[in-house]
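Exercise 7b. Backbone tokens:
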């Protein structure tokens, strides 16, 4: 075959036809090229990357399943600022995260329990138990810079003002501004009363308490799930509340309210973010030399568990 013919065949899909006709370069004219039948280009399927499937990137679905599970099995068993977890939680084959003073619990511990319950549901549903390899069981029990619990419990020295920061600091979450939150995200609030709360975001609400599908100009606050209230069973523990930003006052709602909440774009006052799906965890971890020897001291006066209608 003419040495010039092979490149020509590659350039023109009808080149095979030319070969069959034993064309040589000398025989190929501009008119011949125009007359050559062109084979249709093969269909190409380009799979969507994980980044192109946003829902697949986030752990919200399992966070919400955990909320449903805890609301069904452990609702309103009592609130106590010195209690952690409503029950002992197995950490796969690595032991157990023990509860203290079960079934009472409080707000930051509630967020940790939601995450641990989401772990269980995810592993059981997918068969992927590698989530338990990411952090040692001690990370859910200790309060140092290298312990996730130490960050969920809030410690500005650790650059953690809430559950969202905690997950970001351990490569397990990303920042999401309030107006872009999806159900199953995490929020830490501050109030004008110098108190605060750690909660799971369920949805935006309007002045009537109606849940809004997305943020819009009727939004006055949001519905959340956490542990709050009083120590008596039935009066505190896991439950829903309706947070209202202080600029909208404290409107009458047919639900238990949490008023005087500060709206701010400053993450120190309204800490917001989303947990990533395990395959997107980055393995970025805090270093022990960042704040050597320091541990988080839980601020029970700040996280007192009281909301407007408690």
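Sequence design result:
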């Amino acid at each position: 075959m003419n040495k010039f013919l092979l490149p020509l065949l590659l350039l023109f899909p009808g080149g095979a036809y030319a070969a069959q006709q034993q064309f040589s370069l000398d025989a190929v004219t501009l008119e011949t090229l125009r007359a050559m039948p062109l084979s249709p280009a093969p269909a190409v399927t380009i799979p969507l990357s994980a980044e192109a499937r946003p829902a697949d990137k986030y752990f919200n679905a399992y966070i919400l399943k955990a909320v449903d599970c805890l609301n069904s099995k452990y609702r309103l068993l009592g609130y106590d600022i010195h209690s952690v977890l409503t029950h002992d939680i197995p950490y796969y084959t690595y032991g157990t995260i023990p509860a203290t003073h079960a079934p009472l619990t409080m707000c930051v511990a509630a967020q940790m329990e939601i995450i641990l319950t989401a772990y269980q549901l995810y592993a059981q549903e997918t068969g992927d138990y590698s989530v338990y390899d990411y952090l040692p069981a001690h990370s859910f029990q200790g309060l140092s810079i290298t312990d996730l619990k130490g960050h969920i419990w809030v410690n500005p020295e650790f650059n953690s003002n809430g559950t969202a920061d905690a997950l970001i600091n351990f490569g397990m979450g990303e920042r999401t501004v309030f107006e872009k939150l999806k159900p199953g995200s995490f929020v830490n609030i501050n109030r004008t009363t110098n108190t605060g709360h750690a909660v799971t975001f369920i949805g935006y609400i309007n002045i009537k308490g109606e849940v809004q599908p997305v943020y819009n100009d009727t939004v006055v606050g949001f519905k959340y799930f956490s542990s709050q209230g009083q120590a008596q069973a039935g009066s505190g523990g896991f439950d829903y509340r309706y947070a209202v930003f202080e600029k909208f006052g404290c409107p009458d709602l047919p639900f238990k309210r949490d008023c005087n909440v500060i709206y701010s774009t400053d993450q120190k006052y309204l800490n917001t973010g989303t947990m990533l799906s395990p395959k997107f965890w980055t393995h970025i971890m805090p270093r022990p030399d960042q704040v050597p020897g320091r541990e988080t001291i839980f601020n029970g006066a700040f996280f007192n568990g009281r909301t407007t209608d408690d």
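Instructor comment: The beta strands are 89-90, 96-97, 173-175, 186-190, 196-205, 211-212, 221-229, 236-245, 257-261, 270-275. Confidence is low (pLDDT under 50) at residues 1-28, 39-52.
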